[in-house]
Amino acid sequence: MLLSKEVRRLAGKWQAQTGWPKRLEWIEIAGLRGWTGQRFQLNFPIMAVVGENGVGKSTVLQAAAAVYRFREPDRARERFPSDFFPETFWDQIRDAEIRYAMKEGDDSSRLTIRKPGGRWRGNQERPSRHVEYFDLRRIQPVPARVGYARLATPRWKEVSSNPFEEARLERFSGIMGRPYDLAKMALTDGDSKRVVPVISQQGAAYSGFHQGAGETVMAELLQRDIPKYSLVLIDEVESSLHPRAQRRLIRYLAERCRESELQIILSTHSPYVLEELPLEARACIMQSATGRREVMYGVSPEFAMTAMDDVQHAECDLYVEDERAAIMLTEILVAVHPQLRARCRTIPYGAASVGHALGQMVVGSKHPRPSCVFLDGDKGEAPGCLNLPGVDPPEQVVFEALKSHGWSGLNTRTGRDYAQVADACNRAMTLADHHVWVPDAATHLFMSGDNLWQAMCAEWATTSLPEDEAQRVTQAIEDVLLEGAGGSDAAQQAPPAVVPRPRTAAAPTPEIASAASEPQQLW
What we know:
Rossmann fold, globular, 3 domains, 18 helices
Protein backbone atom coordinates (compact mmCIF):
# COMPACT_ATOMS: atom_id res chain seq x y z
CA MET A 1 0.00 0.00 0.00
CA LEU A 2 1.34 3.45 -0.96
CA LEU A 3 2.06 5.83 1.89
CA SER A 4 -0.01 9.00 2.16
CA LYS A 5 1.51 12.31 1.09
CA GLU A 6 1.53 13.44 4.73
CA VAL A 7 3.67 10.48 5.78
CA ARG A 8 5.94 10.81 2.71
CA ARG A 9 6.57 14.47 3.53
CA LEU A 10 7.37 13.56 7.12
CA ALA A 11 9.78 10.84 5.98
CA GLY A 12 11.48 13.25 3.58
CA LYS A 13 12.13 15.83 6.29
CA TRP A 14 13.33 13.18 8.75
CA GLN A 15 15.73 11.65 6.23
CA ALA A 16 17.10 15.08 5.34
CA GLN A 17 18.12 15.47 9.02
CA THR A 18 17.03 19.10 9.07
CA GLY A 19 15.01 19.11 12.29
CA TRP A 20 14.17 17.46 15.60
CA PRO A 21 16.77 19.16 17.83
CA LYS A 22 15.17 17.37 20.81
CA ARG A 23 15.24 13.67 20.10
CA LEU A 24 14.95 10.50 22.16
CA GLU A 25 17.01 7.92 20.27
CA TRP A 26 16.48 4.71 22.26
CA ILE A 27 15.54 3.32 25.65
CA GLU A 28 16.56 0.08 27.36
CA ILE A 29 14.31 -1.36 30.06
CA ALA A 30 15.34 -3.85 32.71
CA GLY A 31 13.66 -5.13 35.86
CA LEU A 32 10.21 -3.82 34.92
CA ARG A 33 7.24 -6.00 33.95
CA GLY A 34 9.34 -8.76 32.44
CA TRP A 35 11.80 -6.59 30.51
CA THR A 36 15.41 -7.73 30.87
CA GLY A 37 17.42 -5.02 29.11
CA GLN A 38 15.95 -5.05 25.60
CA ARG A 39 16.35 -1.87 23.60
CA PHE A 40 13.54 0.05 21.92
CA GLN A 41 14.80 2.29 19.13
CA LEU A 42 12.99 5.34 17.79
CA ASN A 43 13.77 5.00 14.10
CA PHE A 44 11.10 7.42 12.86
CA PRO A 45 9.29 10.49 14.28
CA ILE A 46 6.18 8.35 14.74
CA MET A 47 6.75 4.89 16.19
CA ALA A 48 3.89 2.39 16.31
CA VAL A 49 4.28 -0.35 18.92
CA VAL A 50 2.21 -3.47 18.29
CA GLY A 51 1.87 -6.75 20.16
CA GLU A 52 -0.39 -8.88 22.31
CA ASN A 53 -1.85 -7.60 25.56
CA GLY A 54 0.70 -7.79 28.33
CA VAL A 55 3.88 -7.93 26.22
CA GLY A 56 4.98 -4.46 27.32
CA LYS A 57 3.67 -1.84 24.88
CA SER A 58 2.48 0.49 27.64
CA THR A 59 5.76 -0.08 29.50
CA VAL A 60 7.61 1.38 26.52
CA LEU A 61 5.41 4.49 26.53
CA GLN A 62 5.70 4.92 30.29
CA ALA A 63 9.46 4.45 30.26
CA ALA A 64 9.77 7.09 27.53
CA ALA A 65 7.77 9.51 29.66
CA ALA A 66 9.75 8.68 32.80
CA VAL A 67 13.13 9.74 31.37
CA TYR A 68 12.08 13.41 31.08
CA ARG A 69 11.28 16.08 33.64
CA PHE A 70 7.86 17.54 32.89
CA ARG A 71 4.63 18.65 34.49
CA GLU A 72 1.25 18.24 32.85
CA PRO A 73 -0.96 21.36 32.76
CA ASP A 74 -3.53 19.84 35.11
CA ARG A 75 -0.94 18.67 37.66
CA ALA A 76 0.62 20.74 40.43
CA ARG A 77 3.89 18.81 40.51
CA GLU A 78 6.43 17.22 38.24
CA ARG A 79 5.94 13.66 37.04
CA PHE A 80 8.37 11.03 38.34
CA PRO A 81 9.12 7.40 37.39
CA SER A 82 7.19 6.30 40.48
CA ASP A 83 4.06 7.81 38.91
CA PHE A 84 4.38 5.42 35.98
CA PHE A 85 5.75 2.41 37.88
CA PRO A 86 4.13 2.54 41.34
CA GLU A 87 4.85 0.02 44.05
CA THR A 88 1.96 -1.95 45.49
CA PHE A 89 1.52 -4.91 47.81
CA TRP A 90 1.87 -7.13 44.72
CA ASP A 91 4.47 -5.08 42.82
CA GLN A 92 7.77 -4.68 44.63
CA ILE A 93 10.16 -2.96 42.21
CA ARG A 94 13.85 -3.63 42.83
CA ASP A 95 16.89 -3.54 40.54
CA ALA A 96 14.93 -1.66 37.88
CA GLU A 97 16.78 0.42 35.33
CA ILE A 98 15.90 2.54 32.30
CA ARG A 99 18.87 3.51 30.14
CA TYR A 100 18.34 6.01 27.34
CA ALA A 101 20.11 8.02 24.67
CA MET A 102 19.02 11.44 23.45
CA LYS A 103 20.12 14.44 21.44
CA GLU A 104 19.58 18.12 22.23
CA GLY A 105 20.99 20.27 19.46
CA ASP A 106 24.49 19.00 18.71
CA ASP A 107 24.88 17.35 22.11
CA SER A 108 24.32 13.63 22.59
CA SER A 109 24.03 11.99 25.99
CA ARG A 110 23.38 8.61 27.55
CA LEU A 111 21.70 8.61 30.94
CA THR A 112 20.11 6.21 33.40
CA ILE A 113 17.35 6.26 35.95
CA ARG A 114 17.33 3.30 38.28
CA LYS A 115 15.68 1.87 41.35
CA PRO A 116 18.16 -0.36 43.15
CA GLY A 117 16.09 -0.36 46.34
CA GLY A 118 13.43 1.85 47.82
CA ARG A 119 13.84 5.00 45.70
CA TRP A 120 14.41 5.93 42.08
CA ARG A 121 17.82 7.47 41.39
CA GLY A 122 18.78 9.83 38.60
CA ASN A 123 15.64 11.98 38.64
CA GLN A 124 17.51 15.29 38.79
CA GLU A 125 19.73 14.42 35.83
CA ARG A 126 16.74 13.96 33.54
CA PRO A 127 16.46 16.65 30.84
CA SER A 128 13.33 18.78 30.62
CA ARG A 129 10.89 18.32 27.76
CA HIS A 130 7.19 18.82 27.22
CA VAL A 131 5.51 15.42 27.32
CA GLU A 132 1.87 14.64 26.56
CA TYR A 133 0.64 11.24 27.71
CA PHE A 134 -2.81 10.23 26.51
CA ASP A 135 -3.75 7.16 28.52
CA LEU A 136 -6.90 5.05 28.73
CA ARG A 137 -8.47 7.31 31.34
CA ARG A 138 -8.69 10.09 28.75
CA ILE A 139 -10.49 8.00 26.19
CA GLN A 140 -13.16 6.45 28.38
CA PRO A 141 -16.76 7.28 27.46
CA VAL A 142 -17.99 10.27 29.48
CA PRO A 143 -20.72 8.36 31.38
CA ALA A 144 -18.10 5.85 32.59
CA ARG A 145 -15.78 8.45 34.10
CA VAL A 146 -15.58 8.89 37.84
CA GLY A 147 -17.76 11.75 39.07
CA TYR A 148 -19.51 12.40 35.77
CA ALA A 149 -22.73 10.53 36.49
CA ARG A 150 -23.95 13.34 38.75
CA LEU A 151 -23.67 15.80 35.83
CA ALA A 152 -26.16 13.82 33.73
CA THR A 153 -29.16 15.97 34.62
CA PRO A 154 -30.72 19.21 33.22
CA ARG A 155 -30.23 20.75 36.66
CA TRP A 156 -26.70 21.86 35.76
CA LYS A 157 -26.12 24.63 33.22
CA GLU A 158 -23.12 25.43 31.07
CA VAL A 159 -21.09 28.29 32.57
CA SER A 160 -18.09 28.38 30.22
CA SER A 161 -16.68 26.63 27.18
CA ASN A 162 -13.63 26.47 24.95
CA PRO A 163 -14.79 26.10 21.32
CA PHE A 164 -12.55 24.59 18.67
CA GLU A 165 -11.35 27.28 16.29
CA GLU A 166 -12.06 26.84 12.58
CA ALA A 167 -8.88 24.93 11.69
CA ARG A 168 -9.22 22.51 14.60
CA LEU A 169 -12.92 21.97 13.86
CA GLU A 170 -12.04 21.24 10.22
CA ARG A 171 -9.52 18.61 11.33
CA PHE A 172 -12.06 17.05 13.68
CA SER A 173 -14.56 16.86 10.80
CA GLY A 174 -11.91 15.48 8.44
CA ILE A 175 -10.90 12.64 10.74
CA MET A 176 -14.47 11.64 11.55
CA GLY A 177 -15.53 11.94 7.91
CA ARG A 178 -18.56 14.20 8.42
CA PRO A 179 -19.06 17.98 8.81
CA TYR A 180 -19.52 19.39 12.32
CA ASP A 181 -20.87 22.87 13.08
CA LEU A 182 -19.28 23.07 16.50
CA ALA A 183 -16.99 21.24 18.90
CA LYS A 184 -16.14 22.55 22.33
CA MET A 185 -15.11 21.55 25.85
CA ALA A 186 -17.65 22.87 28.36
CA LEU A 187 -17.87 23.30 32.14
CA THR A 188 -21.10 23.32 34.15
CA ASP A 189 -22.07 24.91 37.43
CA GLY A 190 -22.22 21.38 38.82
CA ASP A 191 -18.45 20.83 38.71
CA SER A 192 -15.73 23.37 37.92
CA LYS A 193 -13.15 20.72 37.01
CA ARG A 194 -14.94 18.04 34.99
CA VAL A 195 -15.00 19.04 31.34
CA VAL A 196 -17.75 17.76 29.03
CA PRO A 197 -17.18 17.56 25.25
CA VAL A 198 -20.06 19.04 23.23
CA ILE A 199 -20.43 18.81 19.44
CA SER A 200 -23.01 19.98 16.94
CA GLN A 201 -23.95 18.48 13.60
CA GLN A 202 -26.51 20.00 11.25
CA GLY A 203 -27.63 22.34 14.00
CA ALA A 204 -28.23 19.60 16.59
CA ALA A 205 -25.91 19.77 19.61
CA TYR A 206 -25.19 16.81 21.87
CA SER A 207 -22.78 16.23 24.72
CA GLY A 208 -20.34 13.46 25.56
CA PHE A 209 -23.19 11.65 27.33
CA HIS A 210 -24.75 10.99 23.91
CA GLN A 211 -21.76 11.05 21.56
CA GLY A 212 -20.25 8.06 19.87
CA ALA A 213 -17.12 6.81 21.62
CA GLY A 214 -14.97 7.74 18.61
CA GLU A 215 -16.24 11.33 18.66
CA THR A 216 -15.33 11.63 22.33
CA VAL A 217 -11.86 10.19 21.71
CA MET A 218 -11.15 12.70 18.95
CA ALA A 219 -12.50 15.65 20.92
CA GLU A 220 -10.21 14.70 23.81
CA LEU A 221 -7.16 14.32 21.57
CA LEU A 222 -7.68 17.45 19.51
CA GLN A 223 -8.35 19.82 22.40
CA ARG A 224 -4.68 20.05 23.42
CA ASP A 225 -2.13 22.55 22.08
CA ILE A 226 1.26 20.88 22.04
CA PRO A 227 4.52 22.90 22.10
CA LYS A 228 7.12 22.38 19.43
CA TYR A 229 9.62 19.53 19.94
CA SER A 230 7.32 17.71 22.38
CA LEU A 231 7.14 13.98 23.04
CA VAL A 232 3.59 12.69 22.52
CA LEU A 233 2.57 9.26 23.83
CA ILE A 234 -0.78 7.72 22.85
CA ASP A 235 -1.91 4.39 24.26
CA GLU A 236 -4.37 2.41 22.08
CA VAL A 237 -4.51 5.07 19.39
CA GLU A 238 -7.27 3.31 17.44
CA SER A 239 -9.71 3.19 20.38
CA SER A 240 -13.31 3.35 19.16
CA LEU A 241 -12.34 4.60 15.69
CA HIS A 242 -13.46 2.97 12.47
CA PRO A 243 -10.71 2.11 9.92
CA ARG A 244 -11.04 5.26 7.79
CA ALA A 245 -10.85 7.44 10.90
CA GLN A 246 -7.76 5.55 12.05
CA ARG A 247 -6.04 6.23 8.73
CA ARG A 248 -7.00 9.91 8.75
CA LEU A 249 -5.78 10.31 12.33
CA ILE A 250 -2.33 8.93 11.47
CA ARG A 251 -2.12 11.28 8.48
CA TYR A 252 -3.00 14.28 10.64
CA LEU A 253 -0.46 13.18 13.24
CA ALA A 254 2.18 12.93 10.51
CA GLU A 255 1.37 16.46 9.35
CA ARG A 256 1.58 17.92 12.85
CA CYS A 257 4.68 15.87 13.57
CA ARG A 258 6.45 17.37 10.57
CA GLU A 259 5.35 20.94 11.28
CA SER A 260 6.23 20.93 15.00
CA GLU A 261 9.07 18.39 14.89
CA LEU A 262 7.41 16.16 17.46
CA GLN A 263 8.24 12.62 18.44
CA ILE A 264 5.21 10.38 18.79
CA ILE A 265 5.06 6.86 20.22
CA LEU A 266 1.74 5.10 19.97
CA SER A 267 0.57 1.63 20.84
CA THR A 268 -1.94 -0.17 18.66
CA HIS A 269 -3.52 -3.47 17.68
CA SER A 270 -4.69 -2.12 14.32
CA PRO A 271 -3.41 -3.18 10.87
CA TYR A 272 -4.82 0.06 9.46
CA VAL A 273 -2.50 2.12 11.66
CA LEU A 274 0.50 0.03 10.63
CA GLU A 275 -0.35 0.31 6.93
CA GLU A 276 -0.21 4.10 7.16
CA LEU A 277 3.39 4.06 8.41
CA PRO A 278 6.67 3.04 6.75
CA LEU A 279 8.49 -0.13 7.78
CA GLU A 280 10.97 1.69 10.02
CA ALA A 281 8.09 3.13 12.05
CA ARG A 282 6.69 -0.29 13.01
CA ALA A 283 7.90 -2.17 16.09
CA CYS A 284 6.42 -5.50 17.14
CA ILE A 285 7.02 -6.81 20.66
CA MET A 286 6.90 -10.60 20.79
CA GLN A 287 7.14 -12.84 23.82
CA SER A 288 8.82 -16.19 23.32
CA ALA A 289 7.79 -19.46 24.90
CA THR A 290 10.35 -18.79 27.67
CA GLY A 291 8.85 -15.36 28.40
CA ARG A 292 11.68 -13.34 26.88
CA ARG A 293 10.67 -10.26 24.91
CA GLU A 294 11.97 -9.53 21.43
CA VAL A 295 11.47 -6.24 19.55
CA MET A 296 11.23 -6.57 15.78
CA TYR A 297 11.23 -3.63 13.41
CA GLY A 298 9.80 -3.34 9.92
CA VAL A 299 7.06 -5.94 10.36
CA SER A 300 4.18 -6.24 7.93
CA PRO A 301 0.61 -5.73 9.17
CA GLU A 302 -0.07 -9.38 8.30
CA PHE A 303 2.80 -10.56 10.48
CA ALA A 304 1.75 -8.34 13.38
CA MET A 305 -1.85 -9.49 13.22
CA THR A 306 -0.82 -13.14 13.01
CA ALA A 307 1.41 -12.70 16.05
CA MET A 308 -1.64 -11.48 18.00
CA ASP A 309 -4.18 -13.97 16.64
CA ASP A 310 -5.11 -16.80 18.98
CA VAL A 311 -6.75 -18.90 16.26
CA GLN A 312 -4.30 -21.51 15.06
CA HIS A 313 -5.19 -24.18 12.54
CA ALA A 314 -2.01 -25.00 10.61
CA GLU A 315 0.75 -27.11 12.14
CA CYS A 316 3.64 -25.02 10.85
CA ASP A 317 4.24 -21.31 10.16
CA LEU A 318 6.13 -20.43 6.99
CA TYR A 319 7.44 -16.87 7.19
CA VAL A 320 8.14 -15.09 3.90
CA GLU A 321 9.02 -11.53 2.95
CA ASP A 322 5.85 -10.46 1.14
CA GLU A 323 2.73 -11.65 -0.66
CA ARG A 324 4.59 -12.51 -3.86
CA ALA A 325 7.00 -14.71 -1.94
CA ALA A 326 4.01 -16.32 -0.22
CA ILE A 327 2.39 -17.16 -3.56
CA MET A 328 5.67 -18.52 -4.91
CA LEU A 329 6.16 -20.81 -1.89
CA THR A 330 2.53 -21.91 -1.97
CA GLU A 331 2.77 -22.95 -5.63
CA ILE A 332 5.99 -24.87 -4.95
CA LEU A 333 4.22 -26.91 -2.28
CA VAL A 334 1.07 -27.37 -4.36
CA ALA A 335 3.14 -28.69 -7.28
CA VAL A 336 5.53 -30.85 -5.28
CA HIS A 337 3.85 -31.82 -2.01
CA PRO A 338 0.18 -30.67 -1.73
CA GLN A 339 -0.36 -32.58 1.53
CA LEU A 340 2.44 -30.53 3.08
CA ARG A 341 0.81 -27.30 1.93
CA ALA A 342 -2.38 -28.23 3.78
CA ARG A 343 -0.45 -28.46 7.05
CA CYS A 344 1.20 -25.03 6.77
CA ARG A 345 0.29 -21.36 6.60
CA THR A 346 2.38 -18.60 5.00
CA ILE A 347 2.90 -15.32 6.87
CA PRO A 348 4.47 -12.26 5.17
CA TYR A 349 6.78 -10.52 7.65
CA GLY A 350 7.90 -7.37 5.82
CA ALA A 351 11.52 -6.18 5.91
CA ALA A 352 14.35 -8.68 5.51
CA SER A 353 15.67 -7.64 8.94
CA VAL A 354 12.51 -9.16 10.44
CA GLY A 355 13.32 -12.40 8.64
CA HIS A 356 16.82 -12.35 10.14
CA ALA A 357 15.37 -11.85 13.63
CA LEU A 358 12.86 -14.66 13.09
CA GLY A 359 15.72 -16.88 11.95
CA GLN A 360 17.60 -16.17 15.16
CA MET A 361 14.47 -17.26 17.03
CA VAL A 362 14.57 -20.54 15.07
CA VAL A 363 18.22 -21.02 16.08
CA GLY A 364 17.31 -20.40 19.72
CA SER A 365 14.16 -22.57 19.57
CA LYS A 366 12.09 -19.56 20.65
CA HIS A 367 9.10 -19.97 18.33
CA PRO A 368 6.04 -21.34 20.14
CA ARG A 369 5.14 -23.40 17.03
CA PRO A 370 7.09 -25.22 14.31
CA SER A 371 8.37 -22.50 11.99
CA CYS A 372 10.45 -22.03 8.83
CA VAL A 373 11.76 -18.65 7.79
CA PHE A 374 12.39 -17.93 4.10
CA LEU A 375 14.37 -15.07 2.60
CA ASP A 376 14.15 -14.09 -1.05
CA GLY A 377 16.87 -15.66 -3.18
CA ASP A 378 18.85 -12.40 -3.53
CA LYS A 379 19.00 -11.66 0.22
CA GLY A 380 21.90 -13.95 1.08
CA GLU A 381 22.03 -16.60 3.75
CA ALA A 382 21.30 -15.92 7.42
CA PRO A 383 21.25 -18.14 10.53
CA GLY A 384 18.02 -20.08 10.93
CA CYS A 385 16.72 -19.02 7.50
CA LEU A 386 16.27 -20.73 4.16
CA ASN A 387 16.26 -19.08 0.74
CA LEU A 388 13.59 -19.36 -1.88
CA PRO A 389 14.84 -20.97 -5.14
CA GLY A 390 17.23 -18.98 -7.29
CA VAL A 391 19.74 -16.27 -6.49
CA ASP A 392 17.57 -13.38 -7.70
CA PRO A 393 14.32 -11.78 -6.53
CA PRO A 394 11.27 -14.05 -7.08
CA GLU A 395 10.01 -11.96 -10.01
CA GLN A 396 13.27 -12.32 -11.90
CA VAL A 397 13.53 -16.03 -11.16
CA VAL A 398 10.04 -16.80 -12.47
CA PHE A 399 9.97 -14.40 -15.43
CA GLU A 400 13.37 -15.48 -16.74
CA ALA A 401 12.58 -19.19 -16.38
CA LEU A 402 9.26 -18.89 -18.20
CA LYS A 403 10.81 -16.72 -20.90
CA SER A 404 13.43 -19.40 -21.53
CA HIS A 405 10.53 -21.79 -22.21
CA GLY A 406 8.90 -19.30 -24.59
CA TRP A 407 6.06 -18.55 -22.12
CA SER A 408 4.62 -21.96 -22.99
CA GLY A 409 1.57 -22.93 -20.96
CA LEU A 410 1.05 -19.52 -19.38
CA ASN A 411 -1.62 -18.56 -21.92
CA THR A 412 -3.66 -21.61 -20.91
CA ARG A 413 -3.41 -20.75 -17.21
CA THR A 414 -4.38 -17.12 -17.78
CA GLY A 415 -7.04 -17.72 -20.43
CA ARG A 416 -5.38 -15.18 -22.74
CA ASP A 417 -4.05 -15.39 -26.30
CA TYR A 418 -0.47 -16.67 -26.47
CA ALA A 419 0.83 -13.67 -28.43
CA GLN A 420 -0.83 -11.30 -25.98
CA VAL A 421 0.80 -13.08 -23.01
CA ALA A 422 4.25 -13.16 -24.63
CA ASP A 423 4.09 -9.49 -25.65
CA ALA A 424 2.93 -8.33 -22.22
CA CYS A 425 5.56 -10.31 -20.30
CA ASN A 426 8.43 -9.48 -22.65
CA ARG A 427 7.51 -5.81 -22.50
CA ALA A 428 7.39 -5.85 -18.69
CA MET A 429 10.91 -7.30 -18.51
CA THR A 430 12.31 -4.25 -20.33
CA LEU A 431 11.48 -2.13 -17.27
CA ALA A 432 14.39 -1.48 -14.90
CA ASP A 433 12.47 -2.17 -11.68
CA HIS A 434 11.51 -5.85 -11.36
CA HIS A 435 8.89 -4.95 -8.73
CA VAL A 436 6.67 -3.46 -11.47
CA TRP A 437 6.95 -6.37 -13.93
CA VAL A 438 3.87 -8.15 -12.57
CA PRO A 439 1.50 -5.14 -12.41
CA ASP A 440 2.66 -3.89 -15.81
CA ALA A 441 2.09 -7.24 -17.52
CA ALA A 442 -1.21 -7.72 -15.68
CA THR A 443 -2.45 -4.33 -16.88
CA HIS A 444 -1.84 -5.27 -20.50
CA LEU A 445 -3.55 -8.64 -19.95
CA PHE A 446 -6.58 -7.05 -18.25
CA MET A 447 -6.28 -9.11 -15.08
CA SER A 448 -5.22 -8.58 -11.49
CA GLY A 449 -1.56 -8.75 -10.56
CA ASP A 450 -2.17 -11.46 -7.95
CA ASN A 451 -3.97 -13.67 -10.46
CA LEU A 452 -1.20 -13.30 -13.04
CA TRP A 453 1.55 -13.95 -10.49
CA GLN A 454 -0.24 -17.04 -9.17
CA ALA A 455 -0.56 -18.41 -12.70
CA MET A 456 3.10 -17.69 -13.43
CA CYS A 457 4.30 -19.33 -10.19
CA ALA A 458 2.09 -22.37 -10.81
CA GLU A 459 3.49 -22.81 -14.34
CA TRP A 460 7.08 -22.25 -13.15
CA ALA A 461 6.76 -24.69 -10.23
CA THR A 462 5.38 -27.35 -12.59
CA THR A 463 7.77 -26.96 -15.53
CA SER A 464 10.88 -25.02 -14.47
CA LEU A 465 11.60 -25.55 -10.77
CA PRO A 466 14.80 -27.60 -10.38
CA GLU A 467 14.14 -30.87 -8.59
CA ASP A 468 16.93 -30.37 -6.07
CA GLU A 469 15.58 -26.95 -5.11
CA ALA A 470 12.08 -28.36 -4.63
CA GLN A 471 13.53 -31.13 -2.46
CA ARG A 472 15.53 -28.64 -0.40
CA VAL A 473 12.45 -26.56 0.41
CA THR A 474 10.04 -29.40 1.14
CA GLN A 475 12.55 -31.44 3.14
CA ALA A 476 13.28 -28.50 5.43
CA ILE A 477 9.57 -28.05 6.16
CA GLU A 478 9.07 -31.78 6.73
CA ASP A 479 12.00 -31.80 9.18
CA VAL A 480 10.50 -28.93 11.17
CA LEU A 481 7.12 -30.67 11.31
CA LEU A 482 8.79 -33.88 12.42
CA GLU A 483 10.63 -32.05 15.17
CA GLY A 484 7.40 -30.41 16.30
CA ALA A 485 5.83 -33.84 16.60
CA GLY A 486 8.79 -35.14 18.64
CA GLY A 487 9.83 -37.47 15.85
CA SER A 488 13.43 -38.11 16.90
CA ASP A 489 15.79 -37.67 19.80
CA ALA A 490 18.13 -35.57 17.68
CA ALA A 491 15.31 -33.30 16.61
CA GLN A 492 14.34 -32.72 20.20
CA GLN A 493 17.89 -31.75 21.18
CA ALA A 494 18.68 -29.14 18.54
CA PRO A 495 16.93 -26.81 16.09
CA PRO A 496 16.63 -28.09 12.53
CA ALA A 497 19.62 -27.51 10.34
CA VAL A 498 19.30 -25.14 7.43
CA VAL A 499 19.81 -26.95 4.14
CA PRO A 500 22.52 -24.85 2.44
CA ARG A 501 23.04 -24.28 -1.25
CA PRO A 502 25.93 -22.87 -3.28
CA ARG A 503 25.90 -19.09 -3.32
CA THR A 504 28.14 -16.23 -4.37
CA ALA A 505 26.51 -13.36 -2.49
CA ALA A 506 27.84 -12.38 0.93
CA ALA A 507 25.53 -12.95 3.87
CA PRO A 508 24.13 -9.77 5.40
CA THR A 509 24.54 -8.95 9.04
CA PRO A 510 21.32 -9.82 10.91
CA GLU A 511 19.49 -6.80 12.29
CA ILE A 512 18.11 -7.98 15.57
CA ALA A 513 16.63 -5.83 18.25
CA SER A 514 18.63 -6.15 21.44
CA ALA A 515 19.93 -3.83 20.65
CA ALA A 516 11.32 24.93 25.14
CA SER A 517 9.65 27.17 22.69
CA GLU A 518 6.34 28.99 22.32
CA PRO A 519 3.37 26.60 22.30
CA GLN A 520 2.13 25.74 18.83
CA GLN A 521 -1.11 24.12 17.89
CA LEU A 522 -0.51 20.41 17.38
CA TRP A 523 -3.83 19.55 15.92
